[in-house]
């Protein structure tokens, strides 16, 4: 039962912190997933769709749901978070079952993991692949230390995972240098012995096998041979990021410190302190922990932490990478493993002290869960998703059967794509007003979906102009139905439900005022201005002039 405590806790946290669509990059991934399920070619010019191996789990779950449930596709990626505590148990178990249990729980309680576990992002998937590389490399090194020939499948799987990780997220290529470096050093240490060459051959064979499988998958789903290693980075205005995030190492690490939550910062600080102490103790030969036991997780933690902060995003010139907190999710697992290996089983009172220290780390992270709870499910533009779901809930109950046309022109293109995806899921498959032939409009009534009433009168879009013209001629009547927005505290009192479900449930029970009868007057904060929804009812008057 003990190995499943951490994964069980992860299931609970993934449910409570479930985000769903956050109306940003995830909409692009979802389009690719829907294309795979619908039998269309994915677009290799799309930075999202060409990450085919990342899309496949979501496509499998979407297909299993009958091709209709967006949440089914997103939930598939939560499983990689649930797997991480089990992997932590597997690595730390050699240092005592109590430590393995604490490590498993601690991984489940890592903020960068559970906060992002319920969203369509590559970071958790990436973190799981990195953790698997760490587990296999540790297993391979242990066999070498014990004088045994490592099993062939370990090097093959390790090679495949190195390329797999880079295919899911390009920055993982940096982390893949760690296992490649260890096997290269082993080849030099053993003076190019035949058995050492065998390991290199198996590693390369695993990588090539994955690339072959990926190329075949691209041929099936994109109609052409391709591998992710050929992908080129999407263009960014790096100068604007540099100005905001800093040019010097001190500025960039300061920005990182401000970006991370206090519990992640504390965990990283403890792990760095442990790495320094173990380095000194190993050099002085004052530790009973074998060097390779802690060096592997230390490298998997420190190397990406440093490179993702002051490394380079281009090999043509020095361009520091763009930083976001979630990009450091792959550092969480090795940081926890490093700490609990250092707190491994001892003799006498030292064991009790180490155990108490481990419990303190878990308690610190548990406090973080309670403090982070108020921010669950609000990543990026997820409040826009909540507003859209409120509209769908209200209109399907009060105006069933009426078509909805999205006429909004505010917000970025991902927001519009998000609206259309959610409306299509609810059955409004012809909601895109830009594709509507105004010459064949339904006689009415119908609903107009927008995020600003002004766009109805100022827009040059054909449907908007047709509505304005017919209203002016008295053929149609335009009525304001409601203004929908769920603020950050909208899920108060329903902690046992994910935010998006809590908001809809409270709305259905008429327990929350998420709908206003008029557009709020005065200053409106940018978040509410960008992420609310407005609905208008168009009805024929029968009084054409």
Automatic annotation (TrEMBL):
NAD among the record's keywords? no
Entry keyword annotation includes Glycoprotein = no
Keywords, in A-Z order: Cell membrane, Glycosyltransferase, Membrane, Transferase, Transmembrane, Transmembrane helix
Q: What is its main location?
A: membrane
TM spans (from-to): 6-24, 52-68, 74-92, 99-115, 150-167, 200-221, 263-284, 296-315, 327-344, 353-373
Recall the GO molecular function terms of this protein's record: glycosyltransferase activity
UniProt enzyme class = transferase
Report which superkingdom the organism of origin falls in.
Bacteria
Q: What is its EC number?
A: 2.4.-.-
The record gives the membrane topology as: Multi-pass membrane protein
Location(s) in or outside the cell: Cell membrane
| UniProt cross-references to PANTHER family, sorted A to Z | MANNOSYLTRANSFERASE YKCB-RELATED, MEMBRANE PROTEIN
Record's protein name: Glycosyltransferase family 39 protein
The organism is Noviluteimonas lactosilytica
